[in-house]
């Protein structure tokens, strides 16, 4: 297919000066509009202001507790089996009060390898693991600190991560169901 011929510039356009001022006027128009209407900003003043993530945004994992304070996880190994990044490590143990039941003695997720696919959440038959925290600040100074363990994931919403708590306090409409800003029961088996 033949390409359309390039439009020939007018003599006024060919000296670029008028076009230059047109561009500047456009930019200054946006600057002035933004000064009077901050809702037009596409940037936010992070970390003082935090982005409200979409309802289905997958944040850092948390482990849920039963009403008796034990972790819901029964160490069935569905999540480490389905995890495509092979970043979940669970060491199972027998529950002291019920030998028929297991619980995770250790439950680690290597966040350096996690691809946030959410398969672990989908695979869990006990609704024991969720990625509804909307915590996107998964960072640390050491690699070891990026291996989230059971205690960390159980307590994630209970003040160990103040930014998340602050975020939910300021954005209660985004808080996961059951979230309370004060520390709650977190005793794992
Ligand atoms: S989100 Fe995906 S990659 Fe990350 S731990 Fe779960 S299954 Fe593995
Ligand atoms: S979190 Fe769910 S899927 Fe993973 S081992 Fe525990 S019960 Fe099984």
Q: What is the secondary structure topology, with strand pairs?
A:
Elements: H1 11-14, H2 17-36, E1 62-63, H3 78-82, E2 88-95, E3 98-110, H4 119-123, E4 129-130, E5 147-148, H5 150-154, H6 156-160, H7 162-170
The structure holds iron/sulfur cluster (SF4) (2 copies).
Residues 83-85, 87-88, 109, 114-120 line the site of one iron/sulfur cluster (SF4).
Task: Describe the structure in your own words.
There is one protein chain. Residues 183-189 have low confidence and may be disordered. It is built from 7 helices and 5 strands; from the N terminus they run H-H-E-H-E-E-H-E-E-H-H-H. It is α+β, with helices and mostly antiparallel strands and 189 residues long. It has a domain at 62-174: Alpha-Beta Plaits, CATH 3.30.70.3270. It is 28% helix and 14% strand. The N and C termini lie far apart (71 Å). A hairpin with a 2-residue loop joins strand 2 (88-95) and strand 3 (98-110). The site of one iron/sulfur cluster has 13 residues, from helix 4.
Overview in brief:
With 189 residues, this protein is of the alpha+beta class. It contains seven helices and five strands. Bound molecules: iron/sulfur cluster (2 copies).
Please state the CA-atom Rg, rounded to the nearest Å.
25 Å
Helix and strand pattern = HHEHEEHEEHHH
Bound molecules: iron/sulfur cluster
Kindly, what is the distance between the CA atoms of the first and last residues, rounded to a whole number of angstroms?
Answer: 71 Å
- The name of the CATH topology of the domain at 62-174 is Alpha-Beta Plaits
Poorly predicted segments = 183-189
CATH architecture tag of the domain at 62-174: 2-Layer Sandwich
| CATH class category of the domain at 62-174 | Alpha Beta
Structural class: alpha+beta
On the 0-100 scale, what is the average pLDDT?
A: 83
Q: How helical, in percent, are the residues?
A: 25-40%
Number of alpha- plus pi-helical segments: 7
């Amino acid at each position: 297919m033949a390409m359309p011929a390039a439009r020939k510039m007018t003599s006024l356009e060919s000296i670029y000066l008028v076009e230059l001022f047109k561009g500047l006027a456009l930019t200054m128009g946006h600057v002035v509009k933004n000064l009077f209407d901050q809702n037009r900003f596409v940037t936010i003043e992070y970390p003082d202001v935090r982005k409200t993530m979409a309802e289905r945004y997958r944040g850092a994992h948390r482990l849920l507790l039963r009403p008796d304070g034990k972790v819901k996880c029964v160490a069935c190994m569905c999540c480490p089996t389905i995890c495509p990044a092979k970043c979940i490590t669970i060491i199972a143990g027998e529950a002291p009060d019920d030998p028929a039941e297991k619980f995770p003695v250790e439950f680690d997720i290597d966040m350096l390898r996690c691809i946030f696919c959410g398969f672990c959440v989908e695979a869990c038959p006990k609704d024991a693991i969720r990625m509804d925290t909307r915590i996107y600040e998964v960072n640390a100074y050491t690699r070891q600190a990026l291996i989230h363990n059971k205690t960390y994931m159980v307590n994630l919403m209970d003040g160990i991560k103040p930014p998340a708590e602050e975020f939910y306090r300021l954005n209660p409409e985004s808080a996961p169901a059951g979230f309370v800003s004060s520390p709650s029961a977190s005793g794992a088996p």
